[in-house]
């Protein structure tokens, strides 16, 4: 994905024409508060773990991100870029082989004009743990068809896969034969109340189909239900990092499967009844779970499947383990929760001597005050006054005082903030409700290398007699980045 048109410095390479016509840059910053999806938290933590193991560093991460084609870069989210960069490095350095990744990510799709099936052929749909590069769980192949057999009703032609976006190729249309496959309704829904010859036709791409006579591969469960549940259970033990909705999906299956077996030895009729209910519940549960996932996290992003595959492959190869990944996610979230930055600001407000030391020797003063063993980056503290307002940005990626403030907000990482903040800081500040006097000097700090910045916001005059606890409650994250003042 190397391109001459690299995304090295957004503030420099963005043209005036783009500023006037780019829809994202014309809109106010999207400051919608949201929790990062679990896969994004994982990728964030994976980088930290790989750095601690001397497998990677932030310079390598940045190089990989800068090598993404500009047109593609602009379409990707922040952690999608990270996932692509980390994956590329793991492959290029031999940490993972292409086969290691493909076991999770699925084999590369390629354009093909080879039509493998004809009208009338009996085919089987792959099971749901079939490795594919299509975004899961929201595949073009509905979950209720996994493992089911049907008849090719019609060859529809050749179509490009609309969801395919891989780290090594983004501009190729991967053409696949598309078929309409006819299934008997009573074979799909065990509770089906209609006629025995009712059918349902579904469009399915060729790579999701195999001859019905072909046995399932070793990576797919067979149609025996006991085996299906056992396999799913093992899969979860082995891949405990998977999305919550996937885990819950199988949890429902296990619960009703066990419930079914409780009745097996007592009453054969009851066994059949619960067997029907089990299948019905699984299909309905999958739909509910997938919709819940969309409602909570939005439609899965194109590179999300790559990110999850990368994490799974690194765990399988024992490069990282799931417990240290969990701990790293937790510690990277804690900085914001522990109010480290706010405690520094309040101490500076209350202790002039501390503030002076802080402004002159930020790193050593903060290490001593917070009783830290070390800091990840040198820290520079700047103070807002009646004459100067400080604003922090990183135009290269999103360098941020994580040890003090936690994970940066989405808007701080956005193209829009990184392009507009250095060019026109007053317009950005205005969006946060920060309207400064015309004669006030604005100092923008572009965190491009090894320093991280913390702003001491102005203390509201009305708080002169407030306690430390009261003051802690009014210090906001945004005020310590400099996008707003503190209001009471």
UniProtKB/TrEMBL annotation:
<dbReference type="InterPro" id="IPR042262">
    <property type="entry name" value="CN_hydtase_beta_C"/>
</dbReference>
<dbReference type="Pfam" id="PF02979">
    <property type="entry name" value="NHase_alpha"/>
</dbReference>
<dbReference type="InterPro" id="IPR004232">
    <property type="entry name" value="CN_Hdrtase_a/SCN_Hdrlase_g"/>
</dbReference>
<dbReference type="InterPro" id="IPR049054">
    <property type="entry name" value="CN_hydtase_beta-like_N"/>
</dbReference>
<feature type="region of interest" description="Disordered">
    <location>
        <begin position="212"/>
        <end position="280"/>
    </location>
</feature>
<keyword id="KW-0479">Metal-binding</keyword>
<feature type="domain" description="Nitrile hydratase beta subunit">
    <location>
        <begin position="112"/>
        <end position="210"/>
    </location>
</feature>
<dbReference type="InterPro" id="IPR024690">
    <property type="entry name" value="CN_hydtase_beta_dom_C"/>
</dbReference>
<dbReference type="GO" id="GO:0018822">
    <property type="term" value="F:nitrile hydratase activity"/>
</dbReference>
<dbReference type="Pfam" id="PF02211">
    <property type="entry name" value="NHase_beta_C"/>
</dbReference>
<dbReference type="Pfam" id="PF21006">
    <property type="entry name" value="NHase_beta_N"/>
</dbReference>
<dbReference type="InterPro" id="IPR036648">
    <property type="entry name" value="CN_Hdrase_a/SCN_Hdrase_g_sf"/>
</dbReference>
<protein>
    <recommendedName>
        <fullName>nitrile hydratase</fullName>
        <ecNumber>4.2.1.84</ecNumber>
    </recommendedName>
</protein>
<dbReference type="InterPro" id="IPR008990">
    <property type="entry name" value="Elect_transpt_acc-like_dom_sf"/>
</dbReference>
<feature type="domain" description="Nitrile hydratase alpha/Thiocyanate hydrolase gamma">
    <location>
        <begin position="306"/>
        <end position="483"/>
    </location>
</feature>
<keyword id="KW-0456">Lyase</keyword>
<feature type="compositionally biased region" description="Basic residues">
    <location>
        <begin position="238"/>
        <end position="272"/>
    </location>
</feature>
<feature type="domain" description="Nitrile hydratase beta subunit-like N-terminal">
    <location>
        <begin position="36"/>
        <end position="105"/>
    </location>
</feature>
<dbReference type="GO" id="GO:0046914">
    <property type="term" value="F:transition metal ion binding"/>
</dbReference>
């Amino acid at each position: 994905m190397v391109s001459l048109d690299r995304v090295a410095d957004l503030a420099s390479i963005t043209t005036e024409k783009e500023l006037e016509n780019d829809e994202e840059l014309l809109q106010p910053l999207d400051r919608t508060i949201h929790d990062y999806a679990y896969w994004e938290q994982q990728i964030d933590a994976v980088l930290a773990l790989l750095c601690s193991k001397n497998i990677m560093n932030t310079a390598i991460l940045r190089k990989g991100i800068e090598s993404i084609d500009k047109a593609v870069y602009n379409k990707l989210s922040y952690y999608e870029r990270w996932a692509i960069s980390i994956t590329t490095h793991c492959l290029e350095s031999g940490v993972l082989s292409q086969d290691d990744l493909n076991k999770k990510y699925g084999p590369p799709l390629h354009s093909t004009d080879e039509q493998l099936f004809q009208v009338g052929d009996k085919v089987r749909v792959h099971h749901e743990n079939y490795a594919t590069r299509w975004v899961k769980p929201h595949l073009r192949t509905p979950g209720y068809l996994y493992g089911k057999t049907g008849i090719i009703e019609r060859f529809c032609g050749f179509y490009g896969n609309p969801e395919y976006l891989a780290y090594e190729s983004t501009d190729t249309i991967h053409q696949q034969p598309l078929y309409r496959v006819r299934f008997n309704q009573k074979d799909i829904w065990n509770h089906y109340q209609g006629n025995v010859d009712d059918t349902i036709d579904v469009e399915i791409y060729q790579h999701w189909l195999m001859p019905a006579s072909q046995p399932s591969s070793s990576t797919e469960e067979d149609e025996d239900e006991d085996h299906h549940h056992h396999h799913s259970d093992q899969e979860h033990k082995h891949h405990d990092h998977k999305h919550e909705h996937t885990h819950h999906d199988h949890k429902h299956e296990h619960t009703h499967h066990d419930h079914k077996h409780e009745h097996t030895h007592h009453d054969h009729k009851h066994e059949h009844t619960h067997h029907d209910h089990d299948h019905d519940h699984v299909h309905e549960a999958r739909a509910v779970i997938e919709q819940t996932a969309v409602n909570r996290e939005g439609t899965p992003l194109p590179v999300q499947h790559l990110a999850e595959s990368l994490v799974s492959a690194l765990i399988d190869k024992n490069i990282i383990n799931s417990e240290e990944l969990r701990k790293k996610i937790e510690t990277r979230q804690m900085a914001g929760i522990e109010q480290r930055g706010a405690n520094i600001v309040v101490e500076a407000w209350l202790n002039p001597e501390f503030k002076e030391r802080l402004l002159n020797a930020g790193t050593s003063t903060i290490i001593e005050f917070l009783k830290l063993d070390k800091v990840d980056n040198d820290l520079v503290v700047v103070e807002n006054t009646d004459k100067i307002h400080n604003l922090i940005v990183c135009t290269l990626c999103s360098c941020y005082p994580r040890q003090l403030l936690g994970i940066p907000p989405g808007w701080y990482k956005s193209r829009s903030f990184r392009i507009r903040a250095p060019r026109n800081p007053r317009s950005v500040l205005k969006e946060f409700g920060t309207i400064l006097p015309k004669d006030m000097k604005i100092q923008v700090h572009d965190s491009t290398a090894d320093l991280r910045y913390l702003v001491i916001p102005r203390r509201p005059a009305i708080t002169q007699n407030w306690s430390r606890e009261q003051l802690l409650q009014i210090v906001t994250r945004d005020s310590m980045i400099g996008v707003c003042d503190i209001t009471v």
